Amino acid sequence: MIARGLVFAALAALAATALSWGVYGREAGTIVLQIVLPLGFATVLGAAGLARLGGRLGPLARQFALAGLLIAAQLAAVVVLFVETMFFSGHDAFFAGVAVGYAALLGGWTVWALRRRGLDDVDRVREVLSAVAAGRRDVRSNVAGGDEIAALAADVDAMIDRLDAEERARRSLIAVVSHDLRTPVTSLRLLAEALEDDVFEPGGRAEPLARLTTHVRALSALIDDLFELTRLEAGEIRWSIEQVELAELVRETVEAMRPAADERSVAVRADLAPELAPARGNPERIQRVLFNLIQNAIRHTPQDGSVVVRAERDGNGGLEIEVADTGEGIAPAERSHVFDAFYQGGARSGGDSSAGLGLAISRAIVEAHGGRIWLGPCDRGTSVRFTLPCAER
């Protein structure tokens, strides 16, 4: 920084010298160079010293004051040297000093006004951060303006908003997980106590053991889904990416879900565009998304209803897949929340997990592939659509 400052001071001195030489001749230019170059170097070195001391000088107000004094000292030295060197009359020297002093006072007041406004904003941001560190989330700096301090304050306010949203989501997550765990754990405890107390007849233990197994499997599925969702959202899962024959994968998934659909008297079929291009992704994860969406659609489609899986090229060079059903649909107030973890709407929950993790996991998988998932418009039922990148041929 010092070297750049010295170069800048030297270039400025040379510019002043050239201007004086061109207007008043060589002697005037030489005098100007002899005066301004040493003063410029001294000012740069003094400013570098203040910058190096930094926080050791104390508050910013004191640092600004010292910088102002350095500028005023340079200005006074320039006036004194020019008066002595150029042989000004006392009359000229007096009025030059008055003009310089007046300009210095107004300049100092301007610096003070800007410093006060800037430091007030800094103090406001500091107070807000202190309140956030103490646990408050209802404070905002609300600093207006277009300078760097206002931009910093806006970033601080945005950070507080994110912290507040994350803490609310965490509290909600803990509450929902606790609720979803309480029922099976209570049932397991009661069944275990009943078996321990020999409440059931020797030949009648098969049914409670079967119920116990069902609850254990439900708990295991919930824990696995929660663990997978956490790792997906943290970006900790890495899988192989390959060319996926999407048409074949969709047909295979639809056939695998046909028994569940037949059990509920729901027709399920695939409607694929001819010569569908392959996708780029992980086939197991893509199939997990299809399983979640199709199973969710079957669960919420009444008897004699239908579920259709469509796939085609989209308008952006990728692939778009749709799972549409003729079920009860999703209420408008719930549409923006269906992909949230543990969301339990009035119409449906997410995917293959009663805790509402299926759609959240599907969204995380799709976004990890670089695609997006959303609810499409439909006259009847529900349409869930997602995109995948097309494989390069």
Mind explaining what this structure looks like?
- The chain has helices at residues 2-24, 26-53, 60-86, 90-133, 148-196, 206-234, 246-263, 283-299, 358-368, and strands at residues 242-244, 267-272, 279-281, 306-313, 319-325, 373-376, 382-388.
- It has three domains: 2-133, no CATH class; 153-234, Signal transduction histidine kinase, dimerisation/phosphotransfer (DHp) domain (Helix Hairpins, Orthogonal Bundle), CATH 1.10.287.130; 242-388, Histidine kinase-like ATPase, C-terminal domain (Heat Shock Protein 90), CATH 3.30.565.10.
- A hairpin with a 5-residue loop joins strand 6 (373-376) and strand 7 (382-388).
- It is elongated.
- The strands form two sheets. Strands 2-4-5-7-6 form a five-stranded mixed β-sheet. Strands 1-3 form a two-stranded antiparallel sheet.
- Helix content is 63%, strand content 10%.
- It has 393 residues and is an alpha+beta fold.
- Helix 2 packs antiparallel against helix 3, helix 6 packs parallel to helix 9 (358-368) and helix 8 (283-299) runs antiparallel to helix 9.
What integer value in Å does the Rg equal?
A: 37 Å
The main sheet comes to:
5 strands, mixed
What is the H-and-E element order?
HHHHHHEHEEHEEHEE
Determine the mean pLDDT. 79
For the record, the count of structural domains works out to 3
Specify the CATH homologous superfamily of the largest domain: Histidine kinase-like ATPase, C-terminal domain
- Which bin fits the share of residues in helices? 55-70%
Q: Which segments are poorly predicted (pLDDT under 50) over 5 or more consecutive residues?
A: 347-354
How much of the sequence lies in strands comes to 5-15%
CATH topology of the largest domain: Heat Shock Protein 90
Total number of beta strands: 7
Would you state the CATH class of the largest domain?
A: Alpha Beta
Discrete helix count: 9
